[in-house]
């Protein structure tokens, strides 16, 4: 896919609005009226005269493609007209921040029919409400500014719009996939830059700086999430946050990092041997995880039950750990006992889009089955959805030791063999996958072949 050519067009906001209206009408037959959404508002830092770092509200962006703060949007069901309201010129702020986007410029930039200033929003709402008897305004609770009024509308629905947008966001169009692909392209090169520095870096934060510097230099100033730069045993902590430990004497570095491109996320994880070559134990675990990932990706297509793919990952992990002698006994009994959860405690992946853990996954964190409790996506995958495939095998003493003390599980774990693997820390390999009718497309080009990783390290 030629991401840059596709992204020369406009973000397809009106197409998204039509999809949302269709969804609402599937829940509220013959629904008529308007959609109303707001951007995030500027908020000042406490005890400071600067604004907090701005992150656009995703519901607003989905229906506008507009990154501006302090803005509003109305979409008319019947005329399919979208009106964007942007802040007017504030002479007091121009000296500090320069001229803002004008209404004429906004009309050219974003996929809307009309652009007005925010001073017109209440008058426009009143006009629409009065000219459409018995109409409904659809809005999201707690995302309506105090000065905005819906007095002229006979009906107000605050229950369905958020649900509609979240469900519509699951299936991406070509433009959205191009945005995720662009974020992947930049992030993959950032992973390569870290790989080339991993042998000489003294501290995890040096490598975080390498990744961040590459992203900013490539035009991606915002990160999809805080990077995980975990060396040695710290890689067994799933969401490690410190990123400041020395790396001397440690086996591997786990890098989980991805940038945003215009609000759309990449989410990539790779593991590199700090010394230049994987140890026997590290390579054995890496090969298991890579097989888990490749086999799970091969199983993907429209309509596949994600729960089954997650189960497949566990079966491959059990086979691999049995072959190494870390697990022992009958593989079916190990699966039934859920002992593999000690080494692979998280879900196989999650939807990806404007949020790293994107909407519509229907997770069930109350599930009593520990193998599925943290699975962020449940059910069948539609074509056009983007999902991460990120299996892992971890040696986290906090998680594994209770299993070693429980006779139900300890009979399946060889503690003496396990002792050789603690320093491996954890291995996770994560790619971003588009589901298609007959298979999938991998948007992630970061290097994961272990021989290629070692070759690049040898050259650097």
UniProtKB/TrEMBL annotation:
Please name the top-level EC class of this enzyme: hydrolase
Q: Where is the Aminopeptidase P N-terminal domain?
A: 11-145
CDD domains recorded = Prolidase
Q: Does the keyword Cytoplasm apply?
A: no
Which UniProt key words apply to this protein? Aminopeptidase, Hydrolase, Manganese, Metal-binding, Metalloprotease, Protease
Main role?
Catalyzes the removal of a penultimate prolyl residue from the N-termini of peptides.
Q: What is this protein called?
A: Xaa-Pro aminopeptidase
Species of origin: Apodospora peruviana
């Amino acid at each position: 896919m030629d991401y840059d050519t596709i992204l020369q067009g406009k973000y397809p906001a009106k197409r998204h609005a039509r999809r949302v209206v269709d969804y609402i009408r599937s829940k509220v037959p013959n629904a008529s009226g308007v959609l109303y959404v707001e951007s995030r508002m500027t908020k000042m830092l406490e005890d400071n005269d600067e604004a907090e770092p701005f992150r656009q509200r995703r519901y607003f962006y989905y229906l506008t493609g507009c990154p501006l703060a302090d803005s509003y949007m109305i979409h008319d069901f019947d005329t399919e007209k979208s009106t964007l309201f942007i802040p007017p010129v504030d002479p007091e702020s121009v000296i500090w921040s320069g001229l803002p986007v004008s209404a004429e410029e906004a009309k050219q930039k974003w996929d809307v029919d009309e652009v007005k200033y925010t001073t017109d929003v209440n008058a426009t709402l009143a006009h629409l409400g009065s000219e459409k008897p018995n109409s409904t305004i659809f809005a999201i609770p707690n995302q309506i500014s105090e000065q905005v009024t819906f007095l002229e509308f006979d009906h107000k629905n605050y229950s369905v719009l958020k649900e509609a947008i979240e469900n519509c966001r699951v299936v991406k169009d070509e433009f959205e996939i191009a945005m995720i692909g662009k974020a992947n392209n930049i992030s993959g090169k950032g992973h390569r830059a870290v790989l080339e520095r991993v042998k000489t870096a003294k501290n995890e934060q040096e490598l975080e700086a390498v990744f961040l510097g590459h992203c900013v230099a490539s035009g991606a100033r915002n990160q999809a999430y805080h990077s995980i730069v975990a060396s040695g045993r710290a890689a067994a902590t799933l969401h490690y946050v410190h990123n400041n430990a020395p790396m001397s004497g440690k086996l591997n570095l786990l890098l989980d990092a991805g940038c945003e491109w215009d609000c759309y996320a990449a989410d990539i994880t790779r593991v590199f041997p700090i010394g230049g070559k994987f140890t026997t134990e590290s390579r054995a675990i890496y090969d298991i995880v890579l097989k888990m990932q490749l086999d799970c990706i091969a199983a993907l297509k429209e309509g596949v039950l994600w729960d089954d793919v997650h189960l497949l990952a566990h079966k491959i992990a059990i086979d691999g750990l049995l072959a190494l002698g870390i697990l022992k006994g009958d593989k079916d009994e190990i699966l039934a006992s859920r002992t593999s959860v000690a080494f692979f405690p998280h879900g196989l992946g999650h939807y990806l889009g404007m949020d790293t853990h994107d909407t519509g996954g229907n997770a069930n964190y109350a599930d009593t089955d520990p193998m599925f409790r943290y699975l962020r996506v449940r059910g069948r995958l539609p074509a056009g959805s983007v999902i991460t495939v990120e299996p892992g095998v971890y040696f986290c003493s906090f998680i594994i030791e209770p299993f070693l003390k429980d006779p139900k599980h300890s009979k399946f774990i060889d503690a003496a063999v396990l002792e050789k693997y603690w320093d491996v820390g954890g291995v996770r390999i994560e790619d971003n996958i588009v589901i298609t009718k007959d298979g999938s497309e991998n948007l992630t080009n970061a290097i994961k072949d272990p021989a290629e990783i070692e070759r690049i390290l040898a050259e650097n």
